[in-house]
Design goal:
Layout lengths: L1 H24 L1 H28 L2 E2 L2 E2 H21 L6 H7 L1 H6 L5 H7 L4 H20 L6 H32 L3 H12 L12 H8 L2 H13 L7 H25 L6
Antiparallel strand pairs: 1-2
Helix pairs in contact: 2-3, 2-7, 3-7, 3-8, 3-11, 8-11, 8-12, 11-12
Length: about 260
């Protein structure tokens, strides 16, 4: 098992090296992407500053607590985008027939579809985002304990399980319909709602964002635990949703592969 993990990690490193070379080949387009990400990061920092300066209480949360919700969303979003950018081009693999080629290889096709195109630009921005996040957290007036921090990191890992499951579901749609663009952007739009505590939304939207597309389990529950706020749903339910969604997504993926009839059909 350990050797297999090492093998796939080396394969992922090879994917990353390939994308790094592509980044330097397409310098002009990637420069524009980098400028866009710098602008986005600057706007995010400006947004956080405006929250701290102008908002005292929002739906029962202090401005400092709202900043933590935003930072949690941003870290989880960047991590998932860095790892699973390959989902965005999956429909092209299916339509061109390249996915048929991947199915004949010894590498797990799901691993290739998910992680075959790591986003180097997001990877480069990951570290400054983490440093800025820690700096902002250290400047906030919060009562964070060691226990709450440990639970927070465990729940962030659980959030990545949920993000993995959601991206696998998108791939399933791609296998069945050769179309993922609309679905992935619906997911992105719903994910944006995680910038704020999902508990502030009205039913049935709140239930949907906790259990149908569990954005709340990804961002709201970890932040509530970190801040010492009684979580909207218990930690055990959050882990059940995380593990359960991953298991269900893998089973759905295997079912979708049985329905796949190749590009020549």
């Amino acid at each position: 098992m350990i050797n297999r993990i090492k093998t796939y990690f080396k394969i992922w490193q090879h994917f990353g090296k390939n994308e790094w070379q592509v980044t330097f080949v397409n310098r002009a387009s990637n420069l524009l992407f980098m400028i866009g990400k710098i602008i986005r990061l600057s706007m995010s920092l400006l947004f956080l500053m405006l929250i701290r300066e102008n908002v005292e209480v929002f739906a029962g949360y202090t401005s400092d607590e709202m900043v933590v919700f935003f930072l949690t969303y941003q870290i989880i979003d960047i991590l998932s985008q860095t790892l699973y950018r390959g989902v965005y081009i999956f429909s092209n693999l299916v339509r061109s027939g390249e996915f048929d080629f991947l199915l004949t290889k010894p590498i797990n096709p799901l691993f290739r579809a998910l992680t075959g195109k790591p986003d180097i630009n997001d990877f480069l921005f990951l570290f400054p985002n983490i440093l800025i996040s820690f700096y902002l957290l250290s400047s906030l007036e919060l009562n964070i304990t060691l226990i709450s921090s440990l639970w927070y990191f465990a729940l962030v890992l659980n959030a990545l399980l949920i993000a993995t499951a959601l991206h696998i579901f998108v791939l399933v749609v791609g296998v069945l319909s050769t179309e993922v663009d609309g679905v992935i952007w619906i997911y992105r739009d719903l994910n944006y709602m995680g910038r704020f505590p999902v508990s502030i939304y009205m039913e049935p939207l709140r239930f949907a964002l906790f259990f149908l597309v569990p954005i709340g389990m990804m961002t709201t529950i970890p932040t509530e635990v970190l801040l010492g706020i009684a979580p909207t749903y218990s930690i055990s339910i959050a882990f059940l949703v995380g593990i359960g969604s991953l298991i269900l997504s893998l089973k759905t993926w295997n079912w979708a592969l049985k329905k796949y009839s190749s590009t020549g059909s």
